Model the fold of this input.
Amino acid sequence: MVRAPCCEKMGLKKGSWTAEEDQILVSYIQLYGHGNWRALPKHAGLQRCGKSCRLRWTNYLRPDIKRGNFSKEEEDVIMKLHRALGNRWSAIAARLPGRTDNEIKNFWNSHLQKKLKQNTTIPAAIKQYSVGTPCTQNTDIQNYGYGGIFSEQSQKLSATDCSFLSRNISATSKYQLLVDHLQLPSRFSSDHSTMESTKINDEMGFWYNLFMEAGESSQPPLNLGE
DNA sequence: AAGAACTTCAACCGCTGGCAA
DNA sequence: ATTGCCAGCGGTTGAAGTTCT
Done:
């Protein structure tokens, strides 16, 4: 299958839209509708690709878009829907009139996810990502000390929690725990191999190695998506 | 006051599914 | 059944703004 040429190769403009461009797009759509997005910029006289026009219209210029902060009610709806649907932003947006999928996605990533993390204690997170039952003996994790990241977050692990972590959770789960609760940069979050091969800062590396070395579980990794 | 670090969010990229030929 | 086009989607990026040191 042949992919359509991208905007750059066709010498079209990229980046932020100017007020003039917005005006041209709005006027054109008000007069003729959007019809075929690919053909639109040519007819409207815009040096943009159709995709860029569609995005600008659907995420910003559409007259039915509700702008401004999300209300508490909207926030609750997003929380509930995200629990039920996951990252299906368009499905969530369909239930929130006037809000776009992009806006909801951004709101989730910058506000709600953070809020959710603050409300989740480390021990709760351990249980969430772990398999098996806790054991009571101390292990390497505790011997290493964990005054760094955990105490900075005012969330201390008990000896039981450390032991439990070390002995019972899979490599994948350990990694997910690092990502979710020790706030690693998001660019590390989706690619385990990147994490292993990239030069990462000392503190991240310390915790990552610690988790990888400590009490590897023989049990299969959890399916974290469920 | 100034530079660093962090946050926000508009816009982009690349993939996917639907549909017509 | 296959191919090619298109719109839509979710993940990611980076500029601009804000806060911190």
Remarks:
- Chain A has three domains: 19-61, 72-118, 122-213.
- The two ends of chain A are 34 Å apart (CA to CA).
- Residues 1-2, 4, 15-16, 36-38, 50-51, 54, 58, 87-90, 101-102, 105, 186-187, 190 of chain A lie near DNA strand C (CB under 10 Å from a C1').
- The first helix of chain A runs from residue 19 to 32.
